[in-house]
Structure formats: structure tokens, C-alpha cells
Amino acid sequence: MKKIKVPNVVLVEWVDAVAETEPWPSNEDVKELTPETVWAVGWLIKKDKEQIKLAKMWNENGWGGVWTIPNGWIRNYVVLEKGSDMGKIVYGKAHCRPFKRSK
After folding, report:
1. What is the model's pLDDT at position 91?
2. Range of the domain at 15
3. Taking the model in full, what pTM does it have?
């Protein structure tokens, strides 16, 4: 039977860039723009000294809905559930226990 390694589920808080979408914003509109705090939960693809990569979805062959967030933008990073603690997936059938909240 083929077993698939289950990735960690993480919560990332970061400060995101904001762009003005109006063709000709006024000086006042531009002064009002500030970076936004964002939170995302996803499957951890990779974390290194430059960035973190999360996915909304995954399967044996790849990832869906991938975010790449520079480390300089990240305020907080928490592993909500370790993939190995979630159980093993065998041929598309999940043998998992219910999630427990991490402390």
C-alpha cells in the first residue's frame, strides 16, 4: 500500500502590501493607504530563511492555491497540527483522528 506524507497545517500572520486600484487616486486617497494585517491557514509546503510557502489544497501530485510570503512580512507563524499527528492517507482514504487544538 502506498502511503502519502501529510504536511503540517500552519497559521501565518503577516503584513501585506496594499495597492490603489483607482486609475487616478487623489493625494488624500494615497495618504490613506497602509499595509494590511492578514492571517492565513494552509498546508506547509516549505519554510526557509527567505520565505514560507502555503497551499490551500494538496494531493499526491501537487499543490493548489499557493501563497509565497516573504519572511520580512511575517509577524507570527504557528503549527496548528503536525501532519504526522493527523494520521496516514492510504490510496485516498483518510484514517485520521479528530483535530485537537494545539496549545
Report:
1. 47
2. 3-96
3. 0.70
